Every structure is written in structure tokens, then in C-alpha cells.
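Researcher: Checking consistency across runs. Here is Alpha/beta hydrolase fold-3 domain-containing protein again:
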Amino acid sequence: MSHEALNPIHPSVLPHLDPVFVKLYNDNVANTPTGPIDLSVLRTKYSVLYSYGTGPAPDCGRIYDSQVPGHNGDLIPVRVYEPTSPGPWPVHIDFHGGGWGLGDLDTESHICKHICVKANVCVIDVAYRLVPEHAFPIGIQDSFAALQYIHAQGAEKFKIEPTRISLGGVSAGGNIALICAHLARDASIPLRLVAVGTPTIDDISKYKSAADAPWPSMQEMEHAPTLNWGRLKWFDNLKWQSIESEGPAREAQMSAVKWYANALQALRFDGLAKTVIYTAGCDPLRDEGEEYARRLIQGGNEVIQKRFAGVPHPFMHMDEYLWQAKDFIDLTAEHIKTNLHRPYSN
């Protein structure tokens, strides 16, 4: 099974796609031959996978790399983007995408730069550890530990305002941000906003085929470009392969998974931060992301949900050509600016 449709766009999806994306895709990757999947090679290429569509990003005041404690106190890398204005600043914490097994501090660097400059906030991008070398849900565990540290120590270490925090991310990173919002509520860590794009939500290990999933988008976009059913299952298998197949270690690892494999199974949906969820019309994950937004609304939370028509899962990386990507970045930055700079009212 191919993990990505690099060959010409499948006819079932073609009528739904923006012609601008279709031309961009056809000009750059449609004729790329598929080959064996090599995780190590894919990792080296992942952060430039959509660079053919990525536009220039503005210059921040300063960018530097640092470390924070992750799960169990192990140090993990972060990249800090500072505005040109004097601190202390509000802080937006980003968790990159990559299906739990890919991605690094370069993956969403252009988005982090835009947010830093346009929202006038410090952005801290977190390089959580990846599967399968580390057992799922290490990405969530590392990211929440990073949030805890930034909230407790960030004023001194990063010159940020710990009462003005937002979270965000794309794809698996969006999932991390949403789950960390639940954990932050339970730990009494105040969040002003959570703003995510095309988040993963459901546990697709339950489904043998796209037809088994309860989401129409999973069937309609089974053969979508950039993220299809085959690639989703490849990522999902990578996640579950990170857990021991038997023995006491497996029991401990599975107990750590809790409800994290399916965010719709969260124990509570009340008392969460204001949330912005952007989905893509031509993304298999579209409907589960929108269902999660509905659960938040039912829980009494303030939610903004918008679907960008005509574009696939990673559209926000193609802001040089796609108006949808430009809007995603600008709207995300505007929401962060508005919510992090408003007077504290709680």
C-alpha cells in the first residue's frame, strides 16, 4: 500500500480541489515516482516536503534554540521566536505535525515566524520525541511537560507572561494542543486560546478500511493528494508499533494511552479554553475535526470552526500560492493577537 498518492490526482477527488492547488501539485510532485518507504529518509525530507508552495516569512526580532524538561524530566529541544518589541511577551506554544513519527523544529518555522510578527507574541516551538523509538503517547506527554515548565518558569527563562498563553499546531500537533488544553484545565494552567489546523482526532486502528470509518470525509477523500487512507494507516501503524506487543511494559504503556488515542473519548468537555479549529475540505480527517468542535460547543465552550474548501490536509504550508493558506495563517495570528493581548478578565 502506498503511503502517499504522488502519482496524478485521483479522479474521485479532482473535482473537489481548487484548480490553483491542482496546478501547483501537478507542476511539482504529481509525476514523482513512488518507492519503498524509509522512515529515516522520510524524516530528512519531511520539513521541506511542501516547500514548493511555501512563501517567504517575515523576520522576527530573534530566533534561538533552547531546551525544556519533557516527560520524566528528560530535556527536549525548543525553538524560540521573539518579537522586535520589548518583553515580557505573551507566548504561543506550537506543536508541529508529522503523524507522531515525523517533523522537527523546521516543519512549521514559517508559520511560527508569521505568528510571532503578526500577533506580536513570543512563539515557542516544541520538538517532542517521536514514535516508534519512544512509546506513544510520548508526543502528548512531552508537550504537556513543556507547557507546565513554560507556565512555571517561562517568565524568568523566556521573558514571557505566564498568564497569557495560547497553544496551537497542525495535524498531530493540533491533536496535541487540543489534548493539552484538557490537561491544562485539570492542572489549573490558564490558557487564553487554542488554535489548530486539520487536527487528527479519532483512533483509526479500529477500522480495517476507509469504508469502515463513520466519517463521510474518510470515504470521499480516501485517495486525496498529500494525505490519503494509505498514509493515515501507515502513520497509525507506526504509532502502535511503538508499544510493546506483550508483557508488563505493554501494560504500563497502554495505561498511559488513556483516552489520548481518540480525543472524542475525553472524560469532560466543559471548562476549556476558547478554541479555533480549521479543517480542509479535501482532507480525510475533516469530519472528525468538525465533530470534535461540536463536542466543545456542547460542553459550553467558545468555539470558532471554519472549513477551507478546495484544499488538502497540509494546505497551510502552501501560502505562496493558496489564498486558503494565507487566510489560515493571518486568521490564526489575528485570533492569537486578540486573545493574548486583551486585558485579563478571569
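Researcher: Does this match what you'd expect to see?
Model: One thing to look at in this run: The chain has one domain: 14-341.
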